[in-house]
Structures
1.
Amino acid sequence: MTTTATTQDAADLDNSDLLNLVGLFSETEIELRDKVRGFVDARIRPNIADWYENAVFPREIVAEMGDLGLLGMHLHGYGCPGRSAVEYGLAALELEAGDSGLRTFVSVQGSLAMSAIHKFGSEAQKNRYLPGMAKGEIIGCFGLTEPTAGSDPGSMATTATRNDDGSWTLNGAKRWIGLASIADIAVIWAATDEGIRGFLVPTDTMGFTATPIEQKLSMRASIQCDIDIVDVQLPAEAVLPDVRGLKGPFSCLNEARYGIMWGAMGAARDSYEVALKYAQERMQFDKPLSGYQITQQKLVNMVLEIQKGILVAVQTGRLKDAGTLDPIQISVGKLNNCREAITICREARAMLGGNGITLEYSPLRHANNLESVRTYEGTDEVHTLILGRHITGEQAFR
């Protein structure tokens, strides 16, 4: 015999979680989520408008993120937290509900720089860098994208030449590299006679220069840089020994893409909640905006896509934790969730009217940030072609 929910039961449903997706998570996962949500409420929400307006990355919260176990949280050993993929995803969602730029810091540090060292580094490299990076005492960056090679890293122009004594000389340039101007160690990918290799470059090395990119309209509470590499001299042990070719950086990008599919839903959820609250409080023509049919339609469309996007993320996370995740499945979440999130944030901004263009409200800030999020770690077009190749068996990149 089946039963239906009573009116009271329906009233108890979370307006942001109509399907009770919270029931899909364990007590440990919910505890982690709530801890990160509390951090966002206490440390990010009260300050993010000023950080964003003044283009300030709040370096003072890096150690706090380390204390919370947010840095390299999905990695095991070497002082890393060793959390599950789903726990990492929930943390990314809550962080991006605060701001994409601060979730991006966690992604660059953990999913890119730390993952590269953890996956491909020597034991000496892992022991030297990972414990300090997990604590936030050492900041890393990941140098793959170049001024003329964004979506096509196979056209990489940065080179590394092996010298007679086994050392290396690096030359080239990188662009849109998160954290580079405050990083202590850079993972730089370069073309060699042996294929593409990864190198650990201390950022105080002569010939290495990182310059922040200014006058940005997106990710203003984050740091992205140009890097110039001019005759940088590195010892033989600077190379990551356990990888050659693009599979190295691509495996790290997939770690970042995974976190993005969760994070984008955080920005969407926050924008929806702001729009819902505003619609319930804003009076127009003698009744609240929420009493109009078009407003309700917009809110319903938002929450439906958020619920579906979180389901995509949860299923992807469970597959990842089970060790059965295919990279193709990451493209599903990155493409879908970024695309839907930016639509939700823009719609929420429109519902706020003129007030929506101010930093008093979050949706336009989220929408601006998501312009970057949907571009980095694979544009919509790149992930469409990845999925299209899988579906049809035809290569359409060229």
2.
Amino acid sequence: MSEVIVHHWPRDRAAALAALIKGDAPVLLQFATPQTTQRDAARAAVRDALCVLLADYLGCAPEAVPLVSIPGQALRLDVPGALPGISVSHDAGISLVALNAHGASGIDVMRLEDLPDWREVASDYLGAAACRHIAASARQERAQIFAAAWTRMEARLKCLGLALTEWTPTLERLLERCGAQSFMPAPGVVATLAWRRTY
């Protein structure tokens, strides 16, 4: 995948549907959501929008879309073989959704901020190589490089259906099964899209 194309909701609804039907790459939706870390309103808005888009995709009414939402689990369509990869991520003011018609997907988004304990967090969860890379970066670039590494790890975990866990060589080999691409959906925000084709 050469470029991440972001479809802004609701402006790009038709283009997102066309890309979803075409199905040759994961489809990425971006939502403006409340500027808060409280995510209930963002979750509800994203689910409502997904029901509208998926109604067009499935050819049914939005209220008939069998979108299953269970706390702590990825959203899924209760339709055998239909759209296996749905992943959602929120941060203050932004929500992203990845939809993959041919396999799993993972998305993670993070606002840039200075993290005084970045070295400990990177060592525990990102591994020694990532920790060295972040440490070697210029101070003004460090937050962005950390965010890219963190969202890349989180997106790939989601893509594989794994919970957050500390870094091990075995985990790193598992994560390498996913393609991943980092990008900036908005100023001061870093995200990573991960995908895995299963058919």
3.
Amino acid sequence: MSTSTGHELDPRDPVDLDASLTDEEREIRDTVRRFVAERVLPDIGERYEQATFDSSIATELGSMGVLGMHLDGYGCPGMSATSYGVVCAELEYGDSGVRSFASVQGSLAMKAIHAFGSEDQKHQWLPPMAAGEKIGCFGLTEPDAGSNPAQMRTTARRDGDDWVLDGTKMWITNGCLSDVAVVWARTDDGIRGFLVDTATEGFESRPMTHKLSLRASVTSELHLDGCRVPDSARLPEAAGLRAPLACLAEARFGIIWGTTGAARACYEAALDYATTREQFGKPIAGFQLTQRKLVEMAVDLGRAQLLALHLGRRKDERGLAAEEVSIGKLANGRTAIEIARTARGVLGASGISLEYPVIRHMTNLESVITYEGTEEIHTLAIGRALTGENAIT
């Protein structure tokens, strides 16, 4: 149906998000979209099934300037938060594991070095990490310290001019790929961050297996047993939990956008399937109940995209409060997984086949809505901001 202006609704962009992006944002989006189509989508189903990650894409992502793209200097292009978000959406359209790789590299590991590192640390690590030549991971979560990182048991004690680290981190994306691990540990002066070269004696990374989500992603355990590093490995500006939580806020912003990419992939798969799959003599898109599902997915997707865009613009203008980021992650995570589940139903039996992207995205999103803050934690963080009452503890 045409409007009075002659504009027709685009089924693949129902809220005309494209018109709200700048030329620069559309250019980087199109570049990454081509990369995903050519390098990720052809074999992502097989990689998911075999639980492998194509680490060769690191330097390709680096050459496109998307690793640490929102950071300034040291080989980083200093692009807008919205541009970074648009890239996250395109990468997660391919797979959550690809977006997670870039997000951990840029918004966790590189962000920690950029915000809290010394000049020597920045010059040593950031340029090769931006190029994808060196990989980083972010060691915060522990077996007994997930939603409450203040409970961490990993320790760092002074021994002369060095620090000796002991402890275990788990659910660490990129761990077994990394050249440097940003490790958060408890010291006599509180929680501090350390840059641990993964070749250091006493450091070991082990792959976590038996995953049924984020299978095309490297998830690891980090073990530190008498791991000795010089004081120059300590992040000098990082003191207390505020530092790692600031990095998490950056990564969560990428998730707000990334989930819209996964949701779009599921919605488009359902739309394509419904308009070509025939039952009872016509495409199933011709039935009212199927149309209702498609409409609900399109409306919810558009709403999630507009929320991501709004938060991106606000972040570029004046920054975001942590609770605003929580609103975005909570809302868009929920929306994306509901779209995935609805799309799975539209595809019927085909919905559980890796020939289509839906079941892969659906299971990936089960992790995405939990990591970097569960729904419960984000809900209570928002509730605290609304009421002034802390119900988390």
4.
Amino acid sequence: MPADPLNSTSRRAVEVRRSTRRRRTVSAYREGDRTVVLLPARMTADEEARWVGVMLDKLAAQESRRMLDDSDLARRAAALSEQYLDGHARPASVRWVTNQNTRWGSCTPAEGSIRLSHRLQGMPEYVIDYVLLHELSHLLVPGHGPRFWRLLEAYPRTERARGYLEGVAAAERLPHQPVAGEDPAPVPEEGPDSVTGEGPGRS
């Protein structure tokens, strides 16, 4: 999968460091131009792949909460349009709104306006980028026909972002019931650029 230059995570190399002293916790932080993920030494390769993905998403979500305001959205929309739509989609305004609880985004082609639900705030940047690109494409093509989806084919994380949003929507429809063996949700450590979580329980 090609790297997405608009995503800060994809620009950084990932270094995994294992420790025999680490039993359950998984941590990640930025170190210059790379991301360091700290894992228990006993983790399997599959567990490592899963937790690296989880921690990268957590860091990206943490950064998007800090950084993206309306002006950031407008800049990202312009960059996405240039990269994936040859600059043809040119919104007059892009902003967060708090009155969209059943849609992730919307646009009014006649006005050139794009609105993103505040519920996206704190989600990984690639998810926000996907919703932005989705609405930018609607400025060019109404509806969700084949021509519309062809515009989104160039974005390498379309399916991953759609899966993420579908998972969030499904979770919101049902009260959360913890299941046996469920991993606790990662909890931020102190400091702006570090996150931590609980890995598989092993003695």
